[in-house]
From TrEMBL:
UniProt catalytic activity: 3',5'-cyclic CMP + H2O = CMP + H(+); 3',5'-cyclic UMP + H2O = UMP + H(+)
Organism this protein belongs to: Paenibacillus hexagrammi
Coiled-coil positions: none
Protein name (record): MBL fold metallo-hydrolase
Annotated Metallo-beta-lactamase domain residues: 7-193
Record-linked InterPro entries: Metallo-B-lactamas, RibonucZ/Hydroxyglut_hydro, UPF0173_UPF0282_UlaG_hydrolase
Described purpose of this protein according to its UniProt entry: Counteracts the endogenous Pycsar antiviral defense system. Phosphodiesterase that enables metal-dependent hydrolysis of host cyclic nucleotide Pycsar defense signals such as cCMP and cUMP.
TM spans (from-to): none
Pfam family, one: Lactamase_B_2
Amino acid sequence: MKVTKLPWAGIKVETDDTTLVIDPLYHFPTKFGQPHEPFFPLNEFGDVDAVLVTHHHPDHFDPEAIAQAYGTEIPVYMSSESMRFIGPTSLKQLHGVTLGQRLLVGSAEITPAFSMDGFGDPQVSWIVKGSGRQLIHCGDTLWHGHWWNIRKDYGPFDIACMPVNAAIVNFRGDPPSGQPISLSPEQAVSAAHVLGAKTLIPIHYKAIDCPPIYTQTPDLLHRLHASAQERGVTLAVLDSKGSIVS
């Protein structure tokens, strides 16, 4: 299994004869100003067989870029609950899935598992199994109590892709909580440890840091390395287009 980092929360997963992308993003949300990392047209990452989406937020679901890069007939999978938030789109193969529903895309097995969105919106993690390896991508989840259940039902994992920016936000018009809406570096490492993941790939950081509406947690890479060393988790910090083979 080869995993390539895309900007922000995106990854590409290649198994023996199947290529998937999860949360590919090209059109950076303008409300966050300029991105703090380069963004690339999705076709620069190559062709894919299907797109997996953790949730409908515009920093995770970019239907225009998906259609431009892969065509309007590309299969796109997301939570059935997320489908009701999708407006008009040229994508013709949007498939809603339920937790635990196992599907085959080529030689890869994909399964949506529990995840918890920081705003209370529907979200899933994606488990991809192929080439004798298994990966989980957790979108922009918060800490939750289902890590042990996921490990029992599906684990252990070779690779876990976890959000690490512990963002504090103030842009939805609701009373701001001052609490993070995604995992902290330490929580991401703990989640990977509980899941039995051999390697942690940090996602969902760097590109967006736009105080006061979206504030990334400080010193996150140093904290990641320190926590991973303490927990005995292998850390693979990748820039976009960087990859690892498991």
